[in-house]
């Protein structure tokens, strides 16, 4: 089952080439699990809250002696 998308990806790439569309050679980012994506959208993600907290305190840390 793993890598079963490869034949479909090759077909998709060929269609994109025919229509002059860009082809993603190797995706750089790992996708998110649906639960994580959903939690971010509803504001309940601990990772999103952590990012917000870091963004909030970072300017204060940089300006402190």
Provide a descriptive summary of the structure in words.
The longest helix has 18 residues, at 46-63. The chain has a domain at 33-64. The chain has helices spanning 6-18, 34-42, 46-63. The chain is mainly alpha-helical and 65 residues long. The protein contains three helices and no strands. The model has no long low-confidence stretch (mean pLDDT 84). It is elongated and about 55 Å long. 62% of the residues lie in helices and 0% in strands.
Mind sketching the topology for me?
Elements: H1 6-18, H2 34-42, H3 46-63
Give me a quick take on this structure:
The chain has a domain at 33-64.
Radius of gyration: 20 Å
- The computed structural class is mainly alpha
Biggest sheet: strands, sense, closure? none
How many β-strand stretches?
0
Shape: elongated
- Helix amount, in percent? 55-70%
Q: How much is the average pLDDT? A: 84
Number of helices: 3
SSE order, one letter for each helix or strand:
HHH
What is the rounded distance between the termini? Answer: 56 Å
Strand content: under 5%
In terms of per-residue confidence, which ranges show pLDDT below 50 for 5 or more consecutive residues?
Answer: none
């Amino acid at each position: 089952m793993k890598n079963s998308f490869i034949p479909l990806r090759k077909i998709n790439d060929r269609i994109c080439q025919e229509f002059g569309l860009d082809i993603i050679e190797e995706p750089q980012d790992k996708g998110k699990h649906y639960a994580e994506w959903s939690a971010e959208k509803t504001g309940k993600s601990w990772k999103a809250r952590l990012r917000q907290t870091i963004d909030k305190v970072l300017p204060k840390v940089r300006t402190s002696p």
